[in-house]
Please model this.
Amino acid sequence: MLQRNKISILDSQPTPIHFLPTLSKELGVELYIKRDDLTPFGAGGNKLRKLEYLLYDAVQKGATTLLTVGGAQTNHGRLTAAVAAKYGMKCVIVSIDDYPGEISANILLDAIMGAEVVLKKNDGSDILLQYAETAAAVKVRYEAMGEKVYEIPMGGSNTVGMLGYYECAEEITAQAKEIGIEDAILYAGVGSMGTYMGLYCGLKNEGSPLGLTGIAILPFNEDSDKHIVEYFNQIKEEYNLTINASRQDFNIETGYIRGGYNNPDAAVRSAIYRMARAEAIILDPCYTGKVFAGILDMIDEGRIKKGEKVIMLHTGGMPGIYTKHHRVEFEKELIDHVTIIE
Model:
């Protein structure tokens, strides 16, 4: 058992695992969904689990402002804004991204909750360096106002944040045992890696019988391969894990990226429609829609066998549907569902 300290944002209430009867019948698998989109505050999502631990660390260090980074429509930024608002702190979100031409989706929610969103146009130089330099300048500005700034990495994905999904791995294991699906495989999106790594370490280190497959939602290259091993080794050293892992131990599907991060894709929208029309659960076009589209492809390809038990992690992100570049594509396809009588 890891030594863990957190501020209990979720009130220790497990999010449900729902059986999906219509899709299970259609697809020939036993399909379940872990509803981490139903976490409270800030429109919900998986990052609140990480932020329980990051917020505790920030409070212990006397922070008054939370500073994080990500794309303009970052879900993690939205939920960082949420916990900052709830616990009386300021929040600033730094994005190397273009202004989308409107205040909508997560940017709108960030502003409603009082956060500052700093959008710096990408100048074509090293993106990580741009993030570092812009965040550093913003930090100096806030410190000049007397704030004590706590920096949170992209997605909350460090050795502290991953504890949220180490704990979630234990939660899912207990739920699966109660339901009788201990031989299921858990499918989760892989972006900044904190959710996947927390699940991996939690399942393996605690001896869970559940399997784990990640589905990459952005390009996974040699740097990614290097980073995931380094990330694991940092966790292993910091928490004295009893397990070992090399790159081959991390089962991550990299063939369902569909052109890149958060880009509109017809197959992803089709997967969103299928889930919504069969089970009345709304997915998002950046993460969960892409994961479900990948699961559908893996079933069609025979890589997920008929009769297998599948648990899909729903990480939230529904506000992303209202992002302009996604919304216009949905509107083109769905206009026939609107009848206008003058």
